[in-house]
Amino acid sequence: MSTTIRPHAETPAGDQPVRLESREERTHRLSVGVLVLLVGVLLAVLTLSTSGTARFALSDVFDEVQLPTLSLPGLPVVVLCALLCLLAGAGFVVGRLSSRLRALAGTVAGVAFLLGFLTWAAAGRDLPFPVSNQLSGTLTLATPLVLGALCGVLCERAGVVNVSIEGQFLTAAFTSALVGSITGSIPLALLAAVAGGVAMAALLALFAIRYKVDQVVLGVVLNLLAVGLTGFVFDQLVQPAAGELNDAPLLTPVAVPGLSAIPLLGPVLFEQNALAYLAIASVLLVWFLVFRTSWGLRVRAVGEHPEAADTVGISVRGTRWSAVLVGGVFGGLGGAFFSLAATGSFTKEMTVGNGFIALAALIMGRWHPVWATVMALFFGFVTQMASQLQTLSTPVPSQFLLLLPYVATVVAVAGLIGRVRAPAADGVPYDKP
Amino acid sequence: MAERRGWAVPWRDVLITLLAFVLAFVVGAVLMVVSDAEVSSQFAYLFTAPSLALGASWDKVSSAYAALFAGSLGGIGPITETTAQAAPLICAGLGVGLAFRAGLFNIGAQGQAVVGAMVAAWIGFSWHLPPGLHLLVALAGGVLAGALWAGIAGVLKARAGAHEVIVTIMLNYVATGLLAFALTTTAFQRPGRTDPISPVVDWNATMPRLEGTRLHLGFLIALLAAAAVWFLMERTTSGFRVKAVGLNPDASRTAGMSVPSTTVLAMLLAGGLAGLAGVQAALGPTVAGTPTPLSAGLVGSIGFDAITVALLGRSRPVGTVLAGLLFGALHAGGLAMQSQAGTSAELTTVLQALIVLFVAAPALVTTVVPFLRARRASLTGTTPTTGGLSS
């Protein structure tokens, strides 16, 4: 898009053509570089308050196979990590790195920051930092975010903006808690969650595709409608008989036989609740659906260029309807997490903005199912880390630690992700000419 | 959407809007009947004794709506309660609407209102200035805080291309968290209290009000803000630039406008207006005469309600004032409905959503209401738009 094109300083030996770097790329590279430098400076400052050894517990006390607790000398590790970050940041700013080296520098900086920060936090504390807890908590917290982001991927790839993931979550949490309480059956409760999510998705599709309502408006309104409807019915019907109508069965962690005995990874990956397994499977399924089936090709076509898709005989409205409804299935499953996996009951507005965070993961993941999942995991990781650090009694006040995931997201969006491009026809209703 | 010329009243739009209200209330009534076990059980006898079922339904619905009406418009007290509820909604709604017109989806009005309320309240209870000046300083502080908070999102969008939806969502959480933290510090917490609540704001910083009612200066400020936004958008170059960038950033760039600085400007203004909404919550007197002290829930969900206000008001100042008054009335009446008719105030949330939904989908209204169908051919897009959000 930019008009100024600066020649890249990179002049590798030989007769390779000189690569040009657009202004956008340059801004992005510089902002990443400055961010990494700042992180390095932060770590350097933290060295002043680092003392003693940092211990990382690789396994829980309850695990069968006990791994040793890792001990790292606090100060040298933090100093090393700070230097690595500064070096990588300088590399980005100077811009003399090939793209492969740049990816390496980015990875090194990320790992160094994480290691340095955790070492600082754990150095000299009474308790070791629980690594396996951290990882399994990440997966648990990310479960609804992953499912919500997948819902968004399907809708938005087809050209329907979905701001109402939150509303789908809330409705599904309500229906699954209600049905689960009445029947006492988890499969039926999950079905009810899917039904709730699909019902909200149908409203989204009806008004976005049939009545061509501005989709951002629609999403906000559907969220409000979900809050109102679930809240009203909860107050009028469920609350007076909470014993029978708001006591759903709870999903318990299921250990995969054999695999769960693997040290460290076993308890993390293979002792989760059914929804977490479903979420992992869903990522693969959605990736396959979107990128490896003809239906997925159609979905992407109507999201990028509906006129062209229409010309070759694809039903734009039909494809959009199907994508939004399939998305609703995942939105519903994500909602079930709150009532069936987290609490076993419904409370008003219990999804507390997770739908919006899923939306953020979707945008940060550039509308790609796998990257959106990575972003959801990132958010889950930072959230879990914040609560783990609270138990270590770091000098940072606990209220600030709770803000960490949100601040980290802002920093990541501003510094690392930069400008993202939505599917071209995202949010544009299709008028058949 | 074409700009309307002159002062011609768009009767068709007015009619559709009114019908949207009627439809929303009808759906609300159905919901009330269905969710009331006692009333809906009467429907078993619908064919043998229809008066039982219909009578019970009528009693249920009419008592709820009567309480809703009485609580919002039935007398001076309720009417001033409506204006008091509407004032912050109008201010924040103006902010969200202004950002919409610049093509920005500002979900962050909530966070901006929270920091606005925080700073205004802090100046209100910890500084001690002469009458008049104190209120002015507190007001300016709150507006500035809101503007700067939104400015973060504006600058990140303009400089790094960070999506404003993500940044404003996250800043909402950060603002709420900061407030929770501040209320545990000595600067904010009321001496002698262990719960997170601040001292009462000085009398000098309290907005003056009509004695015995809830009509206070805040409502006047909200109307003035609406007039100022109208003037800005329709009569100044900056406003023109904001609208142009919202309609087509590429064309604006070609025409020599700076899209980044317009983005920052729009976010600063939007944040200032949302901050003003926070100021209203912090400095507006309650029935007792003093403002509610700062606590975690003081701002409520003003910032999120403001989005629907802006949508219903189609991001125009006059529309936003009307929509703010309507939702203010629903809020005021909802509380009365809950206490007097035993119907959950959540019903007003449903009504709010349905009204916006039906107003946004005129084609649905004409499908449901038969006599409008004949003129369907002349139906023009009256859908509120949010501008170029997908960029």
Automatic annotation (TrEMBL), chain A:
Keywords assigned by UniProt, alphabetized: Cell membrane, Membrane, Transmembrane, Transmembrane helix
Disordered: region residues: 1-20
Transmembrane segments: 30-50, 70-94, 101-123, 135-155, 167-184, 190-209, 216-234, 274-291, 323-344, 356-379, 400-420
Main location, first listed in the record: membrane
Gene Ontology molecular-function annotations: transmembrane transporter activity
CC per GO annotation: plasma membrane
Naturally occurring in which organism (per UniProt): Auraticoccus cholistanensis
Topology within the bilayer: Multi-pass membrane protein
Subcellular location field: Cell membrane
Pfam family, one: BPD_transp_2
Annotated protein name in UniProt: ABC transporter permease
From TrEMBL, chain B:
InterPro entries registered for this protein in UniProt: ABC_transp_permease (IPR001851)
Family annotation (CDD domains): TM_PBP1_transp_TpRbsC_like
GO MF annotation list: transmembrane transporter activity
Membrane-spanning intervals of the chain: 14-33, 86-104, 111-129, 135-156, 165-188, 215-233, 263-283, 295-313, 320-338, 350-372
Keywords: Cell membrane, Membrane, Transmembrane, Transmembrane helix
Subcellular location: Cell membrane
Main localization (coarse): membrane
Superkingdom assignment: Bacteria
Gene Ontology cellular component list: plasma membrane
Membrane topology note: Multi-pass membrane protein
Protein name: ABC transporter permease
Organism annotation: Auraticoccus cholistanensis
